[in-house]
Amino acid sequence: MPKRALPSLTHLQFLVLGVLRADEQPGRVLREALASHGVRRSGPAFYQLMARLERANLVEGWYEQVTVGDQAVTERRYRITAEGARRWARAKSFYDEVSALSSAVRWSDA
Amino acid sequence: MPRTWVERLGDWLPEKARRDLFVPSLADLTYERLVRERTSCSALARVRVRLWHASAALMLLAGCLRLHAVDRVRARISRPARAADPPRKELIVMFARDVRHALRMFRREPAFTAAAVVTLMLGIGVNTALFAVVEAVLLRPLPFGDAERLVLVKHRDVATGLSKQDIAIGDFIDLAARQQSFDALGGYGGFASTLTGAGEAVRIEGVALTPEAFALLGVQPAMGRFFTADDVAEGAPPVVVVSNELWRTQLGSDPQILTRSIQLGTTRRMVVGVAPPGFRFPLANPTNVIVPARVPPAAPANRKASWVYGVGRLKPGVGIEQAEAEFAALSQQFEQEFPQQNHGSLYYTESLRDGLVGEAKRPLLMLLAAVGFVLLIACVNVGNLLLARSLARQHELATRLALGAGRGRLVAQILTEALVLALAGGVAGVFVAWRLGPALAAMVPQAERIPGLDSVGLNVWVLAFSLGVSLVAALGFGAVASIGLVRESARHALAGQRRTTMTTGARRAASSLVAAEIALATVLLIGAGLTLRSFANLISVDPGFTADGVLTVQVLLPPGRYPEQAARSAAYQRLFEAIDALPEVETAGAAAVTPLTGNNWTAALVRPEQPLAAGERPPEVGWQSASAGYFRALGIPLREGRLFNAGDTIDGPPVVIVSDAIAQRFFPGQSPVGKRIVLGDDTAEIVGRVGDIRRASLSDAPRGDLYFPFERTNGPGTTMFLRTAGDPLAALPSIRTTIRRIEPDATLFETRTMADIAAASAAVSRLAMRLLAGFALIALVLAAVGIYGVMAYSVRRRGRELGTRLALGASRADIVGLVMRQAATVAIAGLVVGVVTGLSVARALSSMLYGVPPWDPLALGTACLVLTATALGASYLPARQAARVDPVSTLAAE
């Protein structure tokens, strides 16, 4: 079996990039997605995570105006970069391989 | 778009934290606030959302700071330490050092410390106490599921502006069927009976609820079940849900209660459930039992055949304004479909909390604002004390500046001292509030009818409020004390000398503070003066009857014993005759409605010679059922004709009595006696005219009342009005014995003197007057202390100047005049600002005032006079002290 490097993404980063792979999202929705996986982060803690992803060039962020009723709010939106997609795919294939390996072991045990 | 205070606070954050963490987080928070506001159905709910948003924004700021600090610490750990780095815990160490320094200083100046702490204790104490009341009454969640969506349905007569909760049964059924804004609309009504067979017979109060009403309250039974549609079906066996308290006391906590039945009045009811502990609905009333209320499936032709109260649960996302608009539209529909019965009828909604808290909300918020003024005055006073003290320390501060301390360092130290003082005052204030809060709640009239008032006390919210107030106060007077001080100190440091007179800036700052204090005290005094005048007007109002010496007793005849009107009349007659024969009682009567208790029941008045046009709704006048003894007992004068007599029974011809206002309105220039009015299919003869009375409350202008003979309209329960020879309550034992002798199974309850009822009618006004007067007095004392302190300090600091003046030939009177003029100038400036502010505050008070305009010259003049006298009195002592300065020794000392 060839030697593989461990993924460079944390679970949280993997989760955020995974959500962003489908479509660009506002930070608010990303936080909800995290919460649905049991990860509850305060606003500042979440955006600190996103700022680090931006600095690592894994996501790209910008501000966009949305309206609630007759009031406008400028919220931050994110999309995954090519580098982010590549790193996520690498991590994904690592997890897939590990998972295939473990099921193969169980199969042979059986 | 204007920037919010949170955004402005965010500007203080380090740029990286602001840009990366704060701005996007705040956007999310704003988004959530807007969504929540859109789904809030009441103004109170929106206020709550705002409060939530404000606290969340502050948490957000704190979170950003924390993360930024952690980030920096990590960054520092990961790089080699540099010699120039300040110690990591420098801030904390510095703060602890400042606190220790402050405590040392305060120990050295016990008089100053005591004055500041006592002042703050008063300010924070009264604020915390009143907030404890406000928290219990206005902010604590109601004990129903999602209570913010519960609303009461109410009715307003557009012509008279009178509101009541009673809804005509026909309208209720159609409202429930046609409305779209509510998950469901339920009906309820009062229920009273006698529980027998479980020990001694006891009077039971409760509520009749439709199954829908029970379901929409969102509570779960402690045992068994609540009502279903089967319980209100035709011929269904009578059932009851008992309160947890009744189950525990009268029913002996019987675990088999669900297999038992209880006797309520003439009906035996199967117990199907036990309500959760503390369940009350409406919250103002004791709820011993809940019985099912039946509402017909379709509206009857006579839409006012009976009356019901309505409660509804708003659908998610529907606001109360939306429901109100829908009810207005439905009211119009009803007017078009049933013009004769519904003309001028408007149905509207009111949130359950507003409905329950009712009249108490406005005075509470007003008093909270008043104590806010007291706190401001306290802050200004302590700020002045700190300023005066800091000026005395100018030399020390100047030296520290000269030795290289930063200005920020000095301000931090002054603020730390302020914080220590404020926290000490806050802790003392909490003790004041601990005793004062429940005492304030006990002063509220009919406190048992306002939910929450029985549990006023300290809790985490009240303590948090107290802490918040202390911190704000510390910031407030700390900032006051810092103003100009550091700048002045710096100048002295450079000049290298010590000044012995106050600088212009410091004097101006101190004078402005005193002027502000006088302005605030003026506002409170104007408010107190207005409520005092209003109360005096209210209690001197003639209610149209004599309340003194009258006892009211509610009597309930044994259930089922007198089903016929004639039998009931005979039973009451026996009671009246027996009580009349007592030497303590001069005359006895009975009536359905007790005056001055807010009752607005009305009856339609139509004259046969002036039939209504098609679609015209008859005018309404006050309804009352009374015996002749009622008029005699209350001293309501008979103007002409006669009172009711023994012949006015159900078998005799229908008769009525009218009051003056009806005679003037419907029979101008002629006698109403002998005229007839329409009464259903028949007509009734007016046999007498009596004087008008103030019906619902003392502030309620007299309206016409239509009296029906008690002998024709009485029910199993009534209120007796007994004029006694001496003290009404002293006559009670013999009255009770007499009633028991004639009718052993009669239940007597709610015994009150008419004078007490009249006093209760003015109770809200009396309470507002007392509290405002109390707060104004505190404000006045604090202002006097403040003026005295500043003037005394000013005189001490100006010793050299005054000594020079005396040496140059000024007389003692000149010096007194000089100091007094200075005080008068400050007082006048404060008065002008105070009167202008007071006038606009008084306008907000106007709905609570009776017979006195908000610009009442007497109240304004008195407030100005009292404050001027206080200001001059407080500055006279320092002025005399100034005049006693010995020029030789003062100049020599310099």
Which properties best describe this structure?
heterodimer; A: 110 residues; alpha+beta; Arc Repressor Mutant, subunit A; 20% strand; B: 894 residues; 15% strand
Report on this structure.
The complex is a heterodimer of chains A (110) and B (894). By secondary structure, chain A is of the alpha+beta class. Chain A has helices spanning 11-22, 27-36, 43-55, 82-109; strands spanning 25-26, 59-68, 71-80. The two termini of chain A are 22 Å apart. Chain B has 894 residues and is α+β, with helices and mostly antiparallel strands. Chain B contains 28 helices and 23 strands. In chain B, the strands form three sheets. In chain B, strands 15, 16, 17, 18, 19, 20 and 21 form a seven-stranded mixed sheet that branches. A six-stranded mixed β-barrel of chain B has the order 4-5-10-7-9-8. In chain B, a hairpin with a 5-residue loop joins strand 1 (150-157) and strand 2 (163-164). In chain B, helix 5 crosses helix 14. The longest helix of chain B has 37 residues, at 407-443. The two termini of chain B are 59 Å apart. The chains are: A alpha+beta (110), B alpha+beta (894). The A-B interface holds A 27-28, 31, 42-48, 50-51, 66, 68-69, 71-76 and B 1, 17, 20-32, 34-35, 38, 59-60, 63-64, 66-67, 71.
Shape of chain A: elongated
β-strand percent of chain A reads 15-25%
β-sheet strand percentage of chain B:
15-25%
Radius of gyration of chain B: 35 Å
CA radius of gyration of chain A is: 17 Å
Average pLDDT across residues of chain B?
83
**Order of H and E elements of chain A:** HEHHEEH
Number of separate strands of chain B: 23
CATH superfamily of chain A: Winged helix-like DNA-binding domain superfamily/Winged helix DNA-binding domain
Reading off the top of the CATH hierarchy, the class of chain A is best stated as Mainly Alpha
What structural category characterises the helix and strand content of chain B? Answer: alpha+beta
The overall number of domains of chain A is 1
| Weakly predicted, low-confidence segments of chain A | none
